[in-house]
């Protein structure tokens, strides 16, 4: 049974419909991503899931509870990542963890959690003295203090350098391995591809696609492109005769073959049969970026 069920969610701000019939279901133990351009309605959707906003239509169940009506009970089951601005600059890491753990009936051991998140030697450090990555890890620790079944993480790695971002990804995978279901809002294709089991792409308040990262890419385009330099002049007809090949072009001394299926095997076998080899061979496939542009009509804004 799904641990999060969102069915036909509608949320309006005055005349503006920010979320217009969003539906998705998250299975226990999944990392489920919500991806979309700026203003698509991602944050509004997860704020409704967290019980922070009242929907204007549709229904939501999280661990079987209605987040709006049963917010008190939900607090014990759902961990929400705090925004940076919500923590006092002078609060020390240990104080913040102790304070926030007092909000839960059955909190996790905050010292152990700090160790797990690499903050064990920062307990006496004021929030304002932490690096971006440390602040982010603290906000994740705070989201996990109540030993939640579900963690909702919004723009998890925005503002982090590539190494800190990768460290946070490893951390999230570790948290999932402990059985926590994760609902993740993200702008980053690499993050979505690396972390998420499934993704809902939201655009203008609607789900435009819902699939695994690989499924989204395949839905949009399963074509591949191979580039190489042939070891001797090549007759294009050898390649265009192959059922896998759609087109053969030349670019800067290279042959560019576009096609589907097991294109690489078909092309390399044909070359070998004709005593040719391919130098500088590169295979390019449609990426999640390409899929996002095809689905929403625009590149993702960072
Ligand atoms: N409190 C609010 N009052 C009025 N309009 C709002 C409010 N919060 C969000 N909106 C509007 O609702 C739409 C959806 O906003 P939301 O923050 O959910 O999008 P988002 O996909 O999370 O965007 P971003 O990636 O920029 O954070 C936007 O047009 C936004 O301007």
From TrEMBL:
InterPro entries: AAA+_ATPase, ABC_transporter-like_ATP-bd, ABC_transporter-like_CS, ABC_transporter_ATP-binding, P-loop_NTPase. The keyword Membrane applies. It holds the Pfam family ABC_tran. One of its GO terms (biological process) is response to antibiotic. The keyword Transport applies. GO terms for molecular function: ATP binding; ATP hydrolysis activity. It comes from the Bacteria. One of its GO terms (cellular component) is plasma membrane. It is a peripheral membrane protein. SUPFAM superfamilies: P-loop containing nucleoside triphosphate hydrolases (SSF52540). Its main location: membrane. Residues 4-229 form the ABC transporter domain. SMART domains: AAA. It is found in: Cell membrane. Keywords: Antibiotic resistance, ATP-binding, Cell membrane, Membrane, Nucleotide-binding, Translocase, Transport. This is ABC-2 type transport system ATP-binding protein. It comes from Amycolatopsis sulphurea.
